[in-house]
Amino acid sequence: MNILPWIFATALAVPIAPALAAQGNPRLVKAPSPYLRLHANDLVKWYPWEEATFELARKRNLPVLASFGYTACHWCHVMQETHFNVPDIAKAINENFIPVIVDRERRPELDEAYMLVTEALTRRGGWPNTVFLTPERKPFYGTGYIAPDSFREILGNILNGWESQQQDLIAEAERLSELLENFMTRKAEAAEITPELMNKTAAELTSQFDEFSGGMGSAPKFFQQSILMYLLHQAERSDGPEAKAGLAAVELTLNSIISGGIHDHIEGGLHRYTVDPGWRIPHFEKMLYDQAMMTQAYSEAYRITGKPGYGHMARKIADYVLADLTDPKGGFYATRDADSEGEEGTFYVWTDEQLVSALGVDEATYAIEKFQIISEGELAGKLVLNLDNVSAKDNLRVKQIFDKLAVARTKREKPQRDEKLVVNWNAMMISALARTSMILGDEAYEKAAIKSAQFIWDNMRNGERKLFRSYFEGTPSIEAKLTDYAFLARAFLHLHDLTGGQLWLERANILFQTMEDDFSDQEVGDFFSTSSSSTTNETGGFGRFKSRQDSDLASANGTALEVATNLAQRTLGPESKRRTEKLIAALSGFANSAGGTSILKAADKFLRTGTGPVQYGGSGAYRVHAQQMEDETILLQIKMAPGWHINADKPLENYLIPTKVTLKTLKEPEIAKIIYPEAEIKKLGFSEKPLALYEGTFDIRVETKNLNSKTSHIQLEIQTCSDQICLPPEMLNFKIAPPLPRG
Questions:
Q1: In this structure, are residues 481 and 530 in contact, taking their beta carbons and an 8 Å threshold?
Q2: Would residue 70 count as lying in a domain?
Q3: Of 38, 209, 378, 458, which residue is least crowded by CB atoms under 10 Å?
């Protein structure tokens, strides 16, 4: 019997009780989570997600009400006030359910699984996510935020169902759990990742962008960073029409975000999403992962296009994180809240009276004309700073206004900050800082990235190979998930590229080996989200499942594939190549949608060549770092592995492929000369005649004139040989921009 419709067909009879006294819930007051502590004084007497809680539910034969949220979530605060601290609702929950509160940032594996429940049942998701479970953690209903009266009705109907048709409800929960578990562990037939598929996907994604303001769809509008990064990858990979259209869509999006209200124009940083299609009216929480991924999106866009505005925006976001979300020990805090003084956005929005007080009548009138008062919705009558109607001639005046408003804003109550450190989010910021340091030439970002990476390595490991996920008030906790290992290994590889240090490569290998040992599905070839030692507490009411679809973040398996690809390209020997091929075979069937772009991008890098300013070739035999110097010189730094070489630009045998550099740009600058190193003349095992070759570490310099600040597109044709064999020639392509001075 499908009992779910019946839940809503019966009437509610929940009595109203006097207010319950808030004493401070001893189960939460010292929890290693600001979000759980935030609920310690609720009238609802919450329990943490742990075995003792579900044992109590079994003992009392009560259903579990599990609420998933996070500190910066506006609607979580609303539900806390209008539901969990309303006497009759709290009494109904406390007497008839075992209420469980979960910080979704600490428990992503539970959050992802139970969000699927709500999405499957209601066709929508979001936080707070309230899921009703059997004592065995099996879900039978879920909902996002709903009005208090509707919530009362659901409580009453579920209570009546539990009392009168409990076995039917349990059977429904078993059925739903089995369906979702099968969905989350399903297999897909391997698909061939071809350039044609990459272009087709780029075209399909681009067609979904808003042609007026960029971004996917209309509203609410999120950044969709994985898709932006995929289209940037294609723009670097191809000059075809699909890649050009995709780059245009990305640029429109990035430009709209820079000018829109989603961008905090005073302090820097980005809010999480907007409720309008024009990026103007945000929900105001600031998430570390958004700052990280958009920092990298803007820095990569600068490298590919050479447009300074993108580099400056990358720097502004990164500087915000270093100033506001950085722990003195080196880690990065999770979030800055949306709410302060009891309302969302109070710290960030302005009324006309507040503008007059801060600016005076004339400047306030000008500001209202330029920035525009919002006419409808929750922020009606208020103003969110933006640059949508600001022209170049207004820039100085607007800057002066922003400076005055910055002073006025210091007198406001700042939204609270969630100061726990989450491994995969920190890893994303490390990657963003490492890449941005390499692209913009900013050593401060390199130092910050290394400091954070070292802090995690020193303080968030349990033994030699195991990671904790969360760190709060000096204590690490929670077993790390696949997403933590994958993103941290990726970050270490970015540090390896930036510094050339073998230490980071070794640590990435250690993390990937742990992934192989503890998370891999040996039969299929991909990875589970939780380790083989995970208990039911970690997997919820399901078995172990797999993250293979991008959402706010790139999927854990997509990131794992990127790590495998990067290790294979940096490591001599066939073993790393074989494991990457197996992983691609397991994941490629999930890469045929918007949620599979991280898989597509990683597979493309493995099957063809890498992208970015640092690339590897010859199955790990060489590394090339391409840089555009301030004096318009382009420098290719090449490092060969011991026992390997490449042919010189003028080999002594006609059958050998010469090393050749070509500068390709839309507007060809004047090339003064290409300076190759002096060749070494040697006799090798496969040739009786002497050969001209390059070994060790050496530079190729391209001296140019009239290059200005344009992006340079360099092609490097190269053939790698050892004493025994020569590998097929490779063509590496680099798109690079010069270092970007501050200002």
A1: yes
A2: yes
A3: 458
Examine the fold and report which residue of 134, 168, 184 is the final residue of a domain before the chain moves on: 184
Round the CA-based radius of gyration of the chain to a whole number and report it.
28
Residue 354 lies in domain? 348-411
Give CA–CA dist 421/330, Å, rounded: 10
Of the candidate ranges 15-24, 214-223, 328-337, the one whose mean pLDDT is the lowest: 15-24
Residue range 372-428, pLDDT digits in tens? 999 888 899 999 999 999 999 999 999 999 999 999 999 999 999 999 999 999 999
CA 21 to chain CA centroid, Å, is: 41
Q: In the prediction, which pLDDT does 709 show?
A: 59
Asked whether residue 572 is domain-assigned, the answer is no
Q: Answer yes or no: is 254 within a domain.
A: no
- 346-357 pLDDT, tens digit per residue, is 999 999 999 999
Q: Identify whether the C-beta of residue 290 lies closer than 8 Å to the C-beta of residue 231.
A: no
Q: Of 139, 143, 123, nearest to 181 (Cα)? A: 139
Q: Are 558 and 598 in contact (CB under 8 A)?
A: yes
Q: 75 lies in a domain?
A: yes
CB atoms under 10 Å from CB of 488, counted, come to 28
Of 184, 204, 229, the residue at which a domain comes to its end is: 184
Predicted confidence (pLDDT) at residue 149 exceeds the cutoff of 50: yes
Q: Is residue 483 over pLDDT 90?
A: yes
E strand intervals along 267-350: 273-274, 282-283, 286-287, 333-336, 339-340, 343-344
Residue 682's domain is classified under what CATH number? Answer: 2.60.40.1250
Assessment of whether the complete model's pTM goes beyond 0.90: yes
How is the chain split among helix, strand and coil, in percent rounded to 5? 45, 20, 40
Name the 3-class secondary structure at 605: helix
- Alpha helices for 588-696 (secondary structure H): 597-607
Q: Residues 6 or more apart from 687 whose CB is under 8 A from it?
A: 653
- As for how many domains the chain has, the answer is 3
Distance CA 396, CA 95 (A): 61
